[in-house]
Design a protein that fits this description.
globular; about 150 residues; 6 strands
């Protein structure tokens, strides 16, 4: 019997409109904008809750082609309902990402992480607050792990 991250009949949200941003599923069409966003903000992302563990291996510099492979993997995970990655957009600019994946630690039912670019650092709390509310309202999780912002 298959184990599902979310129930098979759960309608996975495909967007979220926040204050000054929107989420849409991350895919290959975001490659150049996504690559430019995180490559410009590696140190900033490493200081973001959820990415601040020195043992984490991302983000590290990679080529545009390697990034495309990564985005194709995230799109596959979304289709297979194995994990859900969203691009954080301001108009058409990629300013970050949100990841919703199976829990990495016992006691949680999802591992949620988000980042925004250094140039849009002021959006970090707004994204965290909106996604936190969205997780409670629109997702089937009772106890997601999502690094708090201040």
């Amino acid at each position: 019997m298959a184990t599902f991250f979310v129930p098979p009949d759960f309608p996975v949200p495909t967007s979220l409109d926040g204050d000054g941003f929107r989420l849409e599923p991350l895919g290959p069409e975001h490659n150049e904008r996504d690559h430019a966003a995180w490559m410009s903000s590696i140190d900033h992302i490493h200081s973001t809750p959820g990415f601040d563990d020195p043992d984490r291996d991302w983000p590290v510099e990679m080529s545009l082609e390697q990034n495309l492979e990564d985005l194709e993997m995230h799109a596959r995970h979304f289709t297979e309902r194995a994990g859900f990655t969203y691009s954080v957009l301001d108009d058409d600019d990629v300013i970050g990402c949100v990841y919703i994946y199976p829990p990495a630690e016992p006691g949680f039912d999802a591992d949620v992480r988000s980042w925004v670019t250094a140039s849009r650092a002021e959006m970090d709390v707004a994204v965290w607050e909106a996604v936190s509310a969205w997780l409670k309202e629109a997702w089937p999780f009772a106890n997601p792990q999502y690094g708090a912002r201040s």
